[in-house]
Structure formats: C-alpha cells, structure tokens
Design goal:
The chain has two domains: 168 residues, 3-Layer(aba) Sandwich (Rossmann fold), CATH 3.40.50.720; 94 residues, UDP-galactose 4-epimerase, domain 1 (Alpha-Beta Complex). It has nine helices and 13 strands. Strands 3-2-1-4-5-6-11 form a seven-stranded parallel beta sheet. Helix 3 links the parallel strand 5 and strand 6. Helix 4 packs across helix 6 and helix 6 crosses helix 8.
Length: 300
C-alpha cells in the first residue's frame, strides 16, 4: 500500500510508521523533521497546518491521521489537494461525557467531558468535520495507549519506582479501573479495517479486560522483575501530584472491535516489552513529572 501518516516521530505515530514500513508498504510521513525519522519513510517536511502544495495531486491508498487534534487539522489536510481511497482517524474516548452510562458505546451521545475539557471537544469537532466531508472515513476511539516508544511519564513512573526499590504510593485502595490498548494492536486493527471495510465506521478500541490501578502497578513492577509494596494515600491529597493518571475511571465497550479482532496483546506481555525498550531508552520519555519529588517532600 501507499500510506500517508501524519506525524511519524513520536510514540503512536512513530510506531505506526515503523510497523507499516516493516510490512513492506510505501510510507510517507508529514512532520516538521524535529526528531529522528523512521528508517524507510518518505518525509514531507512541513507543519500540517501549512501544507502548501506538498500533497497536491499525490495519491495514497490510505491516510492514517494520528495528529489531528482540531477540525482545522482535518480541514487543512482534506483541502491540500491530496487524493486517497481510505482514511482512518485516531480520535479519542475523551469525546464521551463522563456523565454517560458505562461502558461507553459508539452509539452514545458525545459531548464535553469535564476531565478532558477542550481536548475531547476538539477531537469531536474533528470527527464531525471528517465524516461530513468524507463519510467513508473510519474513526477509532482508544482509551490509554501504551507500548514501545511511549513518551509520556506513565509506565515509566512505576518502572522508575521499581528500579529504585521504592514503595508505591497508591490512591486510596487502588481500585480505580483503567483500560489500555497496545500500539501494536492499533496497527493490526488498522489492517483489519483496510482489508474488510466493515459497515460500521466508528469503533471503540482497546483491551476487553479492565484492570485496577493497583493491578497495573503490580504488572509494571513485575516487568522490572520486582514486587510492588503499596502505601495508601487518602483523597485529601491531589492525585495528580503523585500519580500518573487523573482521578477518573471509565470503560469502553469494545465488542464491535472484538468481532473483527478477538485477541489483543495481554497487558502483562505488553508491559514487559515496553520495559525492555524503556531501560535502553530512558531519555526518550519527555515531560517527566515530579511525582517522586512530591512524594519525598510531602508523603514520606
């Protein structure tokens, strides 16, 4: 396939670009060339909001849009003169208001989520514009991504705590539930969509297994070869000062995805793979949060 990927140098977009290059596809990426490129891609060096004639009259079998965060991003790309057969947009589960009944389903009303704020609204506006302009497009709504090339300080935080033999400070009893999706499963599902062109065009994606934050931390420690010991922190302390997720649990109904792709990477296996990458690429995680500093100064 000839594939156009927006981004291509950071976490999800980098993994996706590498995955499809390794499958023998002709992959073009759009980015500002501020980081190392995946070997084998063709680079269009520009900001996606200023495409000029860079895409005019080019044809792609598939566009995988990973870096559209606003309707303007969609508008600019669709009006660039690019030609394409299929379009898959990586949106977000942040489009579901937290007041909806859970698990969130694709046919529920979307709107503002107070946890995610403008991020969710902007993603929803991008979805709406894309479907209006190109009704055949596919929209994927993931929970938390994880895996190789993760650049946010999420798994890296419990990895660091385990490496330093630290006890882990857990919000209350640690029973808040989370849902994850490995970036390799995202790539496999993109392939499934391209091959089967299902009638449904909006999919929640993610592991069907839900996990508590305490179970997640245990798996992260186990990936390092350690066992986690916990200290409970009560709700009087702001969770974002010492923990890597918001105080918000939600569950996606991924049954439509499972009909097409029943199996996903077990979280335990995916976390081991991520740690094997992380221990040799510690500096690849950007924007490290001072959780450990806060714990040492305020909780110990």
């Amino acid at each position: 396939m000839k594939i156009l990927i927006t981004g291509g140098t950071t976490f999800v977009s980098k993994f996706v670009a590498e995955y499809f290059v390794c499958k023998g596809n002709d992959v073009t990426v759009i980015n500002r060339n501020s980081r190392e490129q995946v070997k084998g891609v063709t680079l269009i060096n520009c900001d996606r909001t200023s495409l000029g004639n860079n895409l005019k009259e080019l044809h792609f079998d598939l566009i995988i849009d990973i870096t559209a965060y606003t309707k303007e991003h969609i508008h600019t790309l669709l009006n660039s003169g690019v030609k394409f057969d299929d379009y898959i947009f990586i949106s977000s589960s942040a489009v579901y208001p937290e007041t909806n009944l859970q698990p969130f389903t694709e046919d529920q009303p979307c709107g503002k989520n107070s946890i995610w704020g403008d991020y969710g609204i902007n993603k929803l506006e991008a979805e709406n514009l894309l479907i209006n302009k190109f009704p055949k497009a596919y929209i994927l709504r993931p929970p938390y991504f994880y895996g190789i090339y993760e650049n946010l300080y999420r798994e890296a935080f419990p990895f660091d705590c385990a490496l330093d033999d630290r006890k882990f400070y857990i919000p209350e009893n640690g029973d808040m539930k989370l849902q994850f999706f490995n970036v390799s499963d995202l790539c496999r599902f993109i392939e499934v969509i391209f091959e089967k062109h299902p009638e449904n065009h909006i999919f929640n994606v993610g592991n069907k297994e839900i996990i508590t934050i305490k179970e997640w931390v245990k798996l992260c420690y186990n990936a390092v070869g350690k066992n986690a010991e916990f200290i409970s922190v009560d709700s009087s302390v702001s969770i974002r000062d010492y923990f890597c997720f918001y105080d918000y649990e939600y569950v996606l109904d991924v049954s439509k995805q499972n009909e097409l792709m029943p199996e996903t990477v077990p979280l335990e296996k995916g976390l081991r793979e991520e740690f094997e990458w992380y221990k040799n690429n510690i500096n690849s995680v950007y924007n490290r949060k001072p959780y450990i500093k806060f714990i040492e100064e305020n909780l110990i």
